[in-house]
Amino acid sequence: xxxxxxxxxxxxxxxxxxxxxxxxxxxxxxxxxxxxxxxxxxxxxxxxxxxxxxxxxxxxxxxxxxxxxxxxxxxxxxxxxxxxxxxxxxxxxxxxxxxxxxxxxxxxxxxxxxxxxxxxxxxxxxxxxxxxxxxxxxxxxxxxxxxxxxxxxxxxxxxxxx
Length: 162
Description:
The chain is 32% helix and 35% strand. By secondary structure, it is of the alpha+beta class.
């Protein structure tokens, strides 16, 4: 059972991570397929995250968050650098790279190869097939100080039409 659960946890974590990637960056449907309806997502360091995303993010907020960030991207990838799987706790910790390719809009050119790193802890339910909690550790300067601002300008320039 332990070896089977290990593989299930690993495959669930990988599928969850791949849901964020291209061909549709930040694909909310692909991400939600691997989550329970009650799944909560936390961003860290909480002190650097603006409201309302500095508290538990539930499905409704998460959907808007994915649309907001995904809309400005042509391509996004999350290469997995490390996975640590704890069968007893039903958790997976992943160290991820991130590569963003931004769409051109207005006077802003297409930008390719912007990078960042993440650390994500995913807690799974009993069977290991669904994520119940995500704790995402990000570089606030690179994500909130750059990616968020680019996404805001994109939304303003396109009137929220992705």
